[in-house]
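re: ur question from yesterday

yeah so i grabbed the chain u mentioned. its 430 aa long if i counted rite. heres the sequnce exactly as i have it in my notes:
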Amino acid sequence: MSLINHTHDTSLTSWVASANTLNNDFPIQNLPFAIFRRKGSQEAFRGAVAIGDQVVDLAALASLGLYDGAVQKALVNASKPQLNDLMAMEQSTWSALRCALSAALATGSEHQAKLESILIAQADIEFDLPCRIGDYTDFYTSINHATTIGSIFRPENPLLPNYKWVPIGYHGRSSSITVSGKDFHRPCGQTKAPAATEPSFGPCKRLDYEMEVGIYIGAGNEMGEAIDIDQADQHIFGMCLFNDWSARDLQAWEYQPLGPFLGKNFASTISPWIVTLDALEPFRTDNPEQVHEPLPYLQVEGKKSYDIKLQVGIKPEGKEETVVANSNFKYMYWTMVQQLAHHTVNGCPVEAGDMMGSGTISGPTKDSYGSMLELSWRGQNPVPMNDGSTRKFINDNDTVIMRAHCENDEVRIGFGDCTGKVLPAIPFKK
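ran it thru and got these structure tokens back, copy pasting raw so excuse formatting
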């Protein structure tokens, strides 16, 4: 089902002048959601929609009484400190709210004077997590990433035989997900050097990022009821940027036989904005070519992949940023509707605000790899920085910056920045 409507008109402009500028992430065709308050205030966090360099205060908009019915109920739900209640509503309601916001912000809107009074500059706000993330599952769905990692560790057998049959994932730790701009300390844990006879304890030496997108669940399902792949789109509210920080040396020692644990649960960073599937509709692209015909519950009709350009940079403290990779979400082997269908096919319930991580997004060339593990080939080939230094992995006081956008000749739909700074490890006291 196509969601294309007048909100996607590339000639549409906004009376908010900054929304009409070149290379702006937040034109009127985007309208992503976030949770915010004014910097330094004790205000309640509440929902906002981005337009240019401003936000619309959705709690204030709800109080104006401009709307009724489903749109007003959606605004009330978007006025809360978390967006879960909005996300739990039907897809048709999300679209109705988007249409109402687009009309109110469009050039010539009869509501311009009223909305001008409830705009707040993005420079004057701070963010919180956009929703209560009850659970998240991290997938492993980039075949380029899986093949490259396999080539590093198992050159004779880089891709395991189940990969082309089943979307691989593991259960993550939602309590350690933080919003962009929040620093975290380098994790400590057990590692074992190749020549050592026993493990040692201390700060991680191979801290890495993973460039991913987060996929937010909207309306969930009852326990025991699978989400049909043909209906999966209607259960996805939107997407964000997701940095799945990874302690590679901790991970290498602990992952057998049960998989990720302390190497993955210490920190994950998400961008504050949720870009809706409605906004991404014009950027659907052909699904990845899959070697085997998927089993029936994973067979999908129509274009379910998206042409989303991604970039990652590393900024040492006090130095300029170095862009180390550019990739694209369309490289993923399994689509997100296949991920969701597989996630629930056994009857697993998901809820509004739950999140799926796409898995590291790597392309077919070195400059499109989505992690330092790949870029430096496990540390064997240090990555040059603009300041003359090199990186095998991420150093203390480095800031990792991720960006993403879709674009055509007339419109750019951006995700905003996803940034996280690594602080030195906290000394362990016995």
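noticed a couple things. The domain at 136-423 is CATH 3.90.850.10 (Fumarylacetoacetate hydrolase; domain 2). also The radius of gyration is 22 Å.
anyway ttyl
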